[in-house]
Design goal:
By secondary structure, the chain is an alpha/beta fold. It contains eight helices and 18 strands.
Length: 288
Amino acid sequence: MATKKSECPVPEGTLLIIGGKENKGKGETGNHESPEGFDRLEIHKRFIELIGKDDPSIEFITSAAEDGVEAFEEYRVLYEQLGVTRVGHIHHTARKEVLEEDVVARVQQADAFFFSGGDQLLLSSLYGGTSFLTELKKRYIYDKIVIGGTSAGAMAMSTPMIYAGSQEVQQMGGEIKVTTGLEFLKDVCIDTHFVHRGRFIRLAQVIATNATCIGLGIEEDTAVIVRSGVEAEVVGSGTVILIEGFRISETNFQDFTKKRTISIRDLTVHILGDKDVFYITKTNPLHK
C-alpha cells in the first residue's frame, strides 16, 4: 500500500533555554563559583545577538510569575541598559483572558519572545491550544525569530514537562509529575536550577519512563541555544547535564503501586560546559 510522504519542516527560529537565576548585571552568578573571564550579562547579550537586528522588538511574557509587573520591570530596565527599548509586556492570569484578548498581531510583529520564571504549569494550562501559542509556533517554524525562557519559562518549552516532584521524593517511583509542555522541543525534557537543587534523580526518572526522550538539566546562570531544532550549544557560567535513556537495559518501574526507590541501569550521562556543542538525538520518525 502506497503511503504519502510528509516532510516535517526544520524550524527557522532559535531557542535560548536558561536554567534560571541568570545574571542580570548584579553580583549574583547563580549558586556556583564563576569561571575565569566570566561576563555577568553574557546570556542576555547572546539573546540580543541571536535576534540579529539593530532595533529589535521583544515581547516579555510573565504569565508564569506571581508578580508580572515586577518581573517585566526588571527585564525592561536590564534591556534598556543593553540598548533595547522596544519591549512589550504580555501577562495573563486566566485562560479566558487569553481567549478574549487578541495578541496575535503582536506575535506576528515581534522579533523575539521571552518567558519569565514562575510556575510552568500556568503556562501550559493558559496557552495550550490557543491562537496565541499556535501563531507563536508557526513563527518559530517559519521565521527567524528567537524565543527565550528562564526557569519555569524554560521548562515549559519542551515535552514532556515536569510540573511537580521535589528533591525529597524524587527517588521514589511514580512521584514525579509530568504533562505536555508548549512543545517547541518534542521528546526533550528540560529541568532547571539543576545542580543547586539536586534534581538529577527526578530528571533521570522522567527519561527512564520516557526513553525516547533526552533530558537537559541546566544549571543556574547557564543556557542552551538550540538552532534548527537539534543543533545545541552551551553558554554561561555553569554546566548542562545531558541524560539519554536509549541504552537503558533494566529498570524497576513495572509496578508503581509499591512505594520503593527507583533503579536504572545503563543510563548515559554527559556533562557539558560553556561553548560545548551537541546534537539533540531524535529516535522518533519526524512528523508534524
